[in-house]
């Protein structure tokens, strides 16, 4: 199973939760398969999906799922200690680990070789780290959402891509509709 | 009131509730105050681009955020400033220690100091330079301006401003 199939299977689990999605193909796939105002697509800045998601989670109450890749987490490895030490129980980091830089032509990453991102996350102090296989992603993510505990999921899958159109939405539109939806949901939660 | 106290009280006045920091000797005092202020959530970052990501998220989550860092970080954050902070039009006050200016004892810091303003100018970041302690009086207006225009704004603070290295 490849990443786009995982994202397709996860769209119903994402439901109305807020999703911050990694640059490149992951965002393009999510945009094609389940575009919603509650999705924030990164159009640039490789590596910061987990940092942006953590920031959103720390600032408000709604649940936030950051979709990241193994290559992107390796680019911003310092994010894992920061996440571990700033616990936000409304935050889930979902690392889709296909052992390759998918958006740039499937060059292998170290996560597909000797490096275990789950072990790195644990060593960084993250309390709830789950490594799962692609087929189990929906159940594992649902469980993490239900647990109300900050969770790091490392979902192992095969390398490979499908053809997807680029996102042509204006970044300010993406940001504004995400913020408007988030504000509305938080206001409704208080009322 | 010390310049450190003034900076932190102006941040609170402008409802900045999350501050991320990457340390510098010159910023140690302001980082201590950020850490202990009850109205600010202090989140140390391991690298400045990570911090800018956290600030972007916090702002989208409804909380104003700021970053405290050294000018050497300009060398590692250009992509983030351009493709995240500017592209999505996010406000970001950047309180930057301007190492390598007068009273600098470490030669290597000068190598980045000579590029700092040019790099910020190249990517159209509004830039202010605090050289004397009284320059802190402008910080209030700079914060107002930053959250008015939704841009990253640099406040370079040199050794003379902090009262010597």
Description:
Chain A is α/β, with parallel strands linked by helices and 191 residues long. Chain A has eight helices and eight strands, in the order H-E-H-E-H-E-H-H-E-E-E-H-E-H-E-H. Chain A has a six-stranded parallel beta sheet with strand order 2-1-3-4-8-7, with helices on both faces. In chain A, helix 1 crosses helix 2 (25-34). The longest helix of chain A has 20 residues, at 171-190. With 165 residues, chain B is of the alpha/beta class. Chain B contains six helices and six strands; from the N terminus they run H-E-H-E-H-E-H-E-H-E-H-E. Chain B has a six-stranded parallel beta sheet, sandwiched between helices. In chain B, helix 3 runs parallel beside helix 4. Chain B is globular. Chain B starts with a helix and ends in an 8-residue tail after the last strand. The A-B interface holds A 20, 40, 42-45, 47-60, 76, 78-79, 81-82, 86, 171-172, 174-175, 178-179, 182-183, 186 and B 17-18, 41, 43-47, 49-63, 65, 79-80, 82-84, 87-90.
- Sheet of most strands of chain A: 6 strands, parallel
What fraction of the residues of chain A are assigned to beta strands by DSSP? 15-25%
Categorize the overall geometry of chain A: globular
Task: Report mean pLDDT of chain B, rounded to a whole number.
Answer: 97
């Amino acid at each position: 199973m490849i990443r786009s199939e995982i994202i397709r299977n996860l769209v119903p689990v994402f439901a109305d939760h807020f999703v911050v999605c990694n640059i490149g193909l992951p965002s393009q796939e999510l945009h094609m398969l389940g575009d919603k105002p509650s999705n924030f697509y990164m159009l640039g800045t490789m590596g910061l999906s987990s940092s942006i998601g953590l920031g959103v989670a720390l600032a408000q109450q709604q649940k936030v799922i950051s979709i990241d890749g193994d290559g992107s987490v390796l680019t911003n490895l310092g994010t894992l200690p920061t996440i571990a030490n700033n616990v936000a129980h409304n935050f889930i980091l979902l690392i889709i680990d296909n052992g390759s830089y998918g958006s740039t032509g499937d060059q292998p990453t170290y996560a597909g070789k000797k490096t275990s991102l789950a072990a790195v996350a644990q060593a960084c102090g993250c309390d709830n780290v789950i490594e799962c296989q692609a087929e189990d992603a929906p159940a594992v993510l649902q469980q993490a959402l239900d647990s109300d505990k900050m969770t790091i999921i490392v979902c192992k899958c095969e390398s490979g891509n499908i053809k997807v159109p680029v996102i042509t939405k204006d970044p300010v539109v993406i940001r504004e509709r995400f913020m408007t939806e988030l504000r509305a949901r938080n206001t409704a939660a208080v009322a | 009131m010390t310049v450190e106290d003034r900076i932190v009280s102006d941040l609170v006045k402008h409802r900045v509730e999350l501050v991320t920091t990457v340390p510098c000797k010159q910023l140690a005092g302001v980082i201590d105050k950020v850490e202990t202020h009850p109205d600010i959530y202090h989140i140390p970052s391991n690298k400045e681009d990570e911090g800018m990501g956290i600030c972007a998220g916090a702002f989208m989550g409804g909380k104003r955020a700021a970053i405290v860092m050294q000018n050497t970080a300009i060398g590692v954050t250009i992509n983030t400033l351009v493709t995240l902070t500017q592209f999505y039009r996010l406000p970001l006050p950047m309180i930057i220690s301007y190492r390598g200016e007068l009273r600098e004892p470490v030669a290597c810091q000068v190598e980045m100091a000579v590029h700092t303003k040019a790099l910020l100018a190249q990517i159209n970041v509004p830039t202010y330079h605090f050289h004397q302690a009284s320059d802190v009086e402008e910080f209030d207006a700079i914060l107002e301006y930053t959250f008015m225009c939704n841009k990253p704004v640099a406040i370079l603070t040199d050794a003379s401003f902090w009262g010597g290295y």
